[in-house]
Every structure is written in C-alpha cells, then in structure tokens.
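Recap slide: Cd2+/Zn2+-exporting ATPase, sequence and predicted structure.
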Amino acid sequence: MSTAEGLVKRKWMLEGLDCANCAMKIENKVSKIEGVSSCSVNFAMKTMTVESAADQADSISEQARQTVTSLEPHVKVRELKAGGVRRKTQPGAVRAVHAHEDGDSGHNGHGHAHGDAAAHRHGHAHGDTAHGHAHGADNHGHSHDHGAGDTRRIVLRLAGGGILAAAAMLLPLGGIPELLLFLAAYLIVGGEVVLSAARNIIRGRVFDENFLMALATIGAFAIGEYPEGVAVMLFYQVGELFQGMAVNRSRRSITALMDIRPEFAYLKDGSGLRRVPPEEVEIGNIIVVKPGEKVPLDGTILEGSAMMDTSALTGESVPRSTEPGSQVLSGFINRNGVITVEVTQTFGESAVSKILELVQNAAGNKAKTENFITKFARAYTPLVVITALLLAVVPPLAINGATFSDWIYRALVFLVISCPCALVVSIPLGFFGGIGAASRSGILVKGSNYLEALNDAKIVVFDKTGTLTKGQFTVTGIFSAGGFTEEELLRTAAYAESHSGHPIAESIRAAYGKAIDMDATGNYDEISGHGISVTVEGKAVLAGNARLMEREGISAAEPAQSGTVVHVAVNQQYAGHLIIADEVKEDSLQAVKALKALGIRKTVMLTGDTKAVAEAVGAQLGIDEIHAGLLPQHKVEAIERLEQEKGKRENIIFVGDGINDTPVLARADVGMAMGGLGSDAAIEAADIVIMTDEPSKIAAAIGIAKRTRRIVWQNIIFALAVKGLFLLLGAFGIATMWEAVFSDVGVTVLAVLNSVRALQIPKE
C-alpha cells in the first residue's frame, strides 16, 4: 500500500505472538532497521505494520521478517495483502480469514488499539516476566491466554509441587532423599522459569525476571535452603497464574467488527442474479439489495426506493428515505423495498473499508506510556544482580578475616530478599480484583491498563443516540389544534400510519396502543419525501412533514419541542402535530452530575444527529460542549482537537454504542461502549463495556479505578519499604535466609490479602 511519496506500507500477521512485552521488543528492533520510517506492532490483533522507503521495501521486508524470527522463533510471519483483501476460501473459513487478513478488528485494536502499548504498561509490571511465560502455547503451556484446560493443568502442577515440598519438610528425611524430593518439587513448579531464563541468555537477554528468579532459587538450593527455593518459585508461579487469568478474563476475542463488512453482493448479469464476494464487483456493475440486507458497495440507486438504516455509518437515528438517483453507502441496511444499484466504488474504497482503515490507523496512534513499575523493573533486576555479585566478591578481598563462604551466603540471602514477588503477585491481583468488582457492577474492563487510565480521566466525550438516549423512538409530545382533542389526534395519526413500516409510524401506533381496524382506511398513498395521504373512516387525512402541509396549502403550527414532527390534517383542516423523539435515558443527567463531582472538567457530545436535537439534549443534561451533524471521520478529528487541548497527565474517555463509533473508541485514551443494546463492533473496539447500558456506570468505573489504584500503591510502597529494610539487614549479615523468606513470602501474602479488598464493590 502506497503512503506518502516514496514510502510504502506493508503489513504482516504474527501468528503465535501471545506476549505484550515481546510485541514491544519486536517493534523497537524493527524500527531501528535502516530505511524504516515507522513500525507498529499491535499485540491484540497480532499484526505488524512497517512503513519504509519504496526502493528498499523488499530488502526491508526480509530484514523485518528475520528480526521477528530471531527474537521470537515460534512466531510465524505471514504478509497480508494491501487493503486486507480476502482470499477465496471455503464458506466456513471466510470469517476466520477475514479476522486475520483485515486485522481491523477493533480493537479491539483497539483491541486493542491500546493493546500493545497498554499491555506493555501493565504487562511489564514485573520486568520481563511476561516474556518468560508468554510462549506457553508453543513451549510449555503457560501463556497469558489460558484456556480452562491450561489453567487446570497449571493449578495441578503447582499443587503437585507444593505437596512434594510439604512432604519433604514434614517427613523425617535427610541427605540425598530430602534433596531429591525438594528438587522434584522445584522442577515441577519452576522448571519452565529456569528454561526460559536459559533461552533468553542464549538470545543475549540476561537481565529479566526469569533470570533473577532462577538465580535466587538455585542459589537457595546451593546453600542448602531447599524449602525457601521451592517456596519462592511457588509464589512467583501463583502470581503468574493470577495474571494469566486476569488477562484471559478481561480481553475477549476480536472478531465482531467484521460484522459490518458485507459478506456478499447480488450481482445482476445476463443470466439473472449471482451471489458473489463484494471484492469481485467492479465499478459500473449492477447489484440488487433486498430488504434486511446490508448494502455491500457504494453506489447510486437506479430502480426502487427504500428506507435506509444509516446509523452504522453516520450515527443518525432516523432512517433515511432513498429513491432512484440517491447515493447509498456500503454498511447501510435496507429496511424495506428492493433496490437496484449501480456501483460507484470498488470494495477497497467503499465506506465500510474506510471505517475499518480508520480503526487500524487509530490503533497505530496510541501513546505508549509506561507506568512506574515498568521503569523500576528495568533498572531493578540488573542492579540487584550486580550488587549481589559485588557483595559476594568485594568484601572477602577487601576485609581482613572475611571469608568467601560467608559473603556468598549473604549475597544469596540478598538475592532471595530482592525477588519482587510481592509486586509480581499483588499488582496483577489488585488490578484483577478491580476488574472483578467492575464486572460484578456490569462493567467489563478489558485490561488493567484501561482501569488505571481511568484515574487520569479529565474529559468525557459522549455519543448521543443509544448512549445518552435510548435509541428507541417514542411519541414525546401531542399538540392538538382546530378543535381536536389529543386523543383524537393520536388515533387519527395511528390509523393514517397503519400501513407504514417506518420506525416513526411504529412509534405512533405503539403510543396509541389499541387495535386498529384496517377496514376503516382506504386510498393509501405514500408521498415520497413528504408523508402519507389516506382516507380514515371516510375523512381525507394527511400525515407528514411541514413540506406536505405547505404543498397542500395548510397552515401548520411551529413545533414546541425538538424531534421529528408529524403534522396531521383532516379534510384540509390542521388537526395538530406529534413530536417523535429518542428519549433521554433515566440516569443520563445523574451520570453527568456524578462525573463533575469526580473532577471531570469537561463533558462533550458528538453526534451525527441534527443541531437542534443535539442542543436540546445537551441543554437538558448540562453538557459543556456540543458538536452535531458529524460523520465518523469528523468525530475522530474532534477527539484529536481535544487531545491537543488536554494536559500531559489527562486522559480522554469516549463513550459510544454504534459501529460508526469504532474509530473514535480506538482513538480515545479509554473507549467505553454501551453493551446491552450497542453494536457488537463497538463492544469489541472498546476498552471498557457497560453491559447495563447505564451512563451512570461511567462514574462507577472511575470510582472502582481510583480505589484499585490506592490498593495497588499501598502494596508497592509497603513491599519496597520492607524489601529495602531487609536488603540492608541481609547485606550486613543480620538477616538470615529465614528472614529473607519472611520478607519475600510474608510481604507477598500480606500484599495479596490487601489486593483481595479490590474485589469488593464500592458503596454508592
């Protein structure tokens, strides 16, 4: 795919990439290849996009492939075609190939659009731990994507190792039998850590968490402290298991965005209609779209008329009327009527493809922020190992009477104390607890990084339809005139609309709520773009917009409320009008007030709806800033303007529900989707999903995030303070291996117990 002049963009699927830390390392290494202008590895979508000089593209592609293979030998690299065009495949395989070839599944990128950076933010909370265990699917079954079988196997392995270690401690054994029993327990529990450390050393990466764990525990065995060696490794692995469960629970599979992509088109040729993939349709071809189907490609209607549900692309709540000559876009849903369309754009250039591309680009725009633990862990491991080495070697050489055996023992005690198990276990568990509390409140958080990001939220941006409003049309106002009662006006309108399948007609019939005698109506005539002319019980009734009244020379009243207006006239006399609107959700006002109370400094509403409707809703809810009549790309531009205005430590939350919101969900620092009635695509593109569809849950999520952060930081400060004290005691020979184990295991247990508090749901 060509980009700026002289640059070309290529994309690869990295099959088997199951570790956020590995994704970051690949991205950093490939970015340094000469001729590469940018490289983005999306961990969630398992894709790598490289932009490079066109004249060097082939050689750079080969270098990039070799770099990935050298860093992660088990990862399979497969180049994807420009534009994500599907290859022909068996019908059952189409969706699977789709999800890989397009790589635009949302998020998640965003799935996680934040996937790589964000998982990096949290996934490294303990140095390179993720790296050592992330290759489980291929190497040793311990990845962060545990299935039920994997989890059961890991728990059994930890239980087996624990039982063997307990037997070794309790049975009256000694010498070789005791050593063999402890060694068997150690290998069952920690063999994979030692193996990973060895692999990383061979690849030239010495200082990672696996190395520290292996060195400390093997050191404990070397000085005869077998129980401590097994105990330290056991706690470490329990921490890893918790983290794996947390990631598995919080991140769902990234497939639903493909639902906006039409799977077929009915191509009209000499032999009739032929069902073909949209990619095979060319400009100028004629296609037929039947009721209930998605429009597969952009085009112009030649024959037929239909109501189009355009909410997937524009967010507009009212279906759009189309007729011969009207433009239709891929992604529109045909509500009624058969239409014949002349195709004006290839599939790669269609509206759906552009939205998917927006999601992909948004995924590449994520800021890669790193939290305190990431920075700490990078320096911590090499510093501890070098200090331990100096402690073992320097004093015996410099101090008279000092023995190597004494100082080597002190150095190993120092290493055992230094193992950051309390942080390794309690930080993921604290976040896991927060995620658990959120899920019990009906809020699904797809990763601890998003929960953490909520703490710095200062700007909340809302979509309108389906987010702050119900997304369902109801009659909100009945204004009678000319001697008619409200009941008579509503009954007349319901009879007039009795033959229409339009959502507005349905809302009028629902408001009337009584059986309609179909024999009482006659001479039904739908006047395109205006409304309906019909005879009701012998009276000539007109029901429609202001244009219809004007055309018939009837003086219509100005609407008293915002919304869609249906004017009614009986025998050429004005009878009044009905207001049909999308009702504001019961807790929307409460949600905006709660956010202000939490310190949110600005609320913004972006909508594809009309300015009048948007301003009415905004005024009712006290929204600070309103932007109406927007298409998806305009919403992204609005978010980017807000990005430039915000402070360095401020985050933007976007809350939406429609497919058209996916690019914005991906671009915002934290994307939230309404999951109860919302689009599957938006749910997958979001970082946080509100399953109850209640806007008030946004404030609840922020409350849980703040509480979780307090608990996590309590653990960090407590663990580091105790570690620091015992490291000093160990270095001076005051602390023995038992104190070392207490400082390691004891602090871990206390931190874990504190983390469990995060599971509680905060009281309102």
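The two ends are 52 Å apart (CA to CA).
The chain has a mean pLDDT of 76.
(End of recap.)
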